[in-house]
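The authors assume throughout that readers already know how a fold can be written as discrete tokens. For illustration, here is how one protein appears when written out as sequence plus structure tokens.
>
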Amino acid sequence: MTPSAPSSARRYDLDWIRVGAFGLLILYHVGLVYGVYGWHVHSVHTFEWMREAILITNPWRLTLLFLVSGAALRFMTFRRTPRQVARARFERLVPPLLFGAVVLVPIQSWIEAMDKAGWPGGLAGYAAWMVHEFSFSGLADGVPVNHLWFIVYIAAYSIVAILLWRRPGLIDRIGGWLETALAGPRLLILPILYLIAIRILLFPWFGVTNVLHWDWYNHALSLGAFVFGFSIVGRETLWRDMERYRWVALGLAAVALPIMMAQVWHPGGRAFWGVPKAMVYGLDQWATIVAILGFGSRHLRSRGGPVLTYLTEATFPLYLAHQTILVAAVWIIRPAHLPAGLEALSLLLITFLGSFAVYEVVKRIPAIRPLWGLKPAGGRPWPLDLEALRRPAARYHRRRRLLAVGIAAPLLALTVVAAAIAAYPGFDNATQYLSELGGSTAQAPIIFNGGVFIAGIMAGVAGIGFGLAVYALTEKRIAGAVIAAVFVLAGAGMSASTLYPWPDPRHMVINLALGIQLAPVLLLWGLASRRDLPRLKIFLTAIFVIMACLTVVTKHMVFPGTVNDANVGWWERAYALVLVGWVGVAAWLLDRKLLQEAGKSPSGGSVAQVAAPGE
């Protein structure tokens, strides 16, 4: 089958659009926390104006994603057979879907059940919920997939597109017909008429259900966009017309958006059976899509680079993780009754940073990469690669594995704390210390104590990796040894404290862990001769300053009363987050540097950069 475009013509603009659309999806879901529509959990703050605000992206965001996904699938077909494409789609989509349905979505569903139906909390409540969901009666009602419905639809639409592609010349004929039919102004007019028609004829009857077998308006919209994107790859006349009419489309969208908002706001907007409303909706929908595709094609088509490469790979894991992280964050933060702006900012940061942290961890663990939508590392067979045992190890691989433990340790600690809070009904984040999660009043202290014990061991192991990394980069044995010793002592303090749960006085051995706040300064000392680590040095300096400020602003030191019994819990959470979280970031930056150094020179022998005179 002859493709209608060369296989080497990579479209970076479509990659940028896909990344941006998924980023908007995360912002959209955070917005739903404050909206008046039904969603999994809501903040104590809700705003009526969110009803109109979500229209900024709601009409076109998913349609654009399906269109770009169809185009991406078409690029896969240029170098593969239908069987190979189908297998690649199965390997990329099915493991994350199953993993998400069994592991990620139940957490969201359980929190929603506690919030809306009074389902019991704690470890016992979660275990009962899992039994309920995956019992015969629960499975008979269907397995909730929540935000993973998009994967289900992409898989189904991929099958449709592959079947169409198997018919010789069919896709080329469809693409040619679209190129002719949508030439000139018809590029704007005809799709808008189609979108208006299905909005009037199908939406009132079916709505949007996200249930594959009963979602006909959505299929008319999303499957149509998917096949459209699949068919127009390489049809340069269409893309040039999108560029040509991009400003016209942007102007139409700018006019349609406020009208659409007014129709939602005012009761009269539903007059005449909703036909005017459907017309404005379809106009905004397609005009925005054409504007985005046109500007992207004009300005981003050849703009690749490492940032895009990183974000493109990270998008699928971020999509999988973000909603579970967001729902859990709302459940944990909501009792604090923070001001709406501060709460929203906190949810955005937690969701984005938490999702990126998940990506940084899972991409380094070959056994779970495909579960998160990532290709097997190095093209290795999954789930088992026996040939890897025979391959020569890469330079610095042991040090990098130790640093990988350092990246995972903070994530484990944060996960353990979140699980321990969920297993402690009534835990007050404002007034109670974290150690109480493993104390006598906790219902399941083993969660906190066991998790912190393991995290302490991981911190010690990571410290050895830090010390060896510093030695590899600078040949400073003493600095490397001191850094490793500080981490090992800190990890020992964390682990030993769990053997004597609060309020046992011996629990205070955890103070050994506070020595880790000196580690940023020690790392700066050890890496002083390296001029090629400016980001790491700035980060370490900032972390030390932040920890120093948090230590000073307490009820014990310079500003007495700033932290008191009513808010000490939140102060401790912030301090612990910084104290533990910086380790993962520093380990990642050092890991990147070791990887870079490993590629510069042959194996065998340390590589150190010579300090400049006077440094």
User: Anything to note?
Assistant: The longest helix spans residues 82-117. The radius of gyration is 27 Å. DSSP finds 22 helices and no strands in the chain. Residues 1-8, 602-615 have pLDDT under 50 and may be disordered.
